[in-house]
């Protein structure tokens, strides 16, 4: 019985040592798990922050893209308006060029008629001048 008691006491001490060892291992494991949880929480926070920043940047880029698209639409509308204005101005220019050509032609015709009339008058003046000289000579002769 005494031997059984000693053996039982050794077993109890062995069980207590195993329990103490297991408690120590459990505490170390819990501590390591706690550190891993903290590390993962920190990493998760960093990733969340990065994601929020990327989402913010994406929203800002989206706003910029929308603003640029709106500016492009406005500029395209202005361009179309300017092209329409240019087309009207070209038509007006063509019309005015036709008027200028017609005026030039008319002016050339008037100039040609004027020159012809000037020639006729010059010729008539020459004839009249010659007649006047003859009459002056005749009047001088008669005087």
What is the secondary structure topology, with strand pairs?
Blueprint: H1 2-142
Protein name: CCD92 protein
InterPro entries: CCDC74A/CCDC74B/CCDC92, CCDC92/74_N
Keywords: Coiled coil
Q: State the helix count.
A: 1
How far apart are the first and last residues' alpha carbons, in Å? Answer: 200 Å
Tell me the strand percentage band: under 5%
Question: Biggest sheet, in brief?
Answer: none
Quaternary state, please? single chain
How would you sum up this structure, described in words?
This protein has about 140 residues and is mainly α. Helices cover about 100% and strands about 0% of the residues. It contains 1 helix and no strands. It has one helix at about 1-140. The N and C termini lie far apart (about 200 Å). This is CCD92 protein. Keywords: Coiled coil. It holds the Pfam family CCDC92.
Short recap of the structure:
The chain is mainly α. The chain has one helix at 2-142. Residues 9-63 form the CCDC92/74 N-terminal domain.
Keywords:
single chain; about 140 residues; mainly alpha
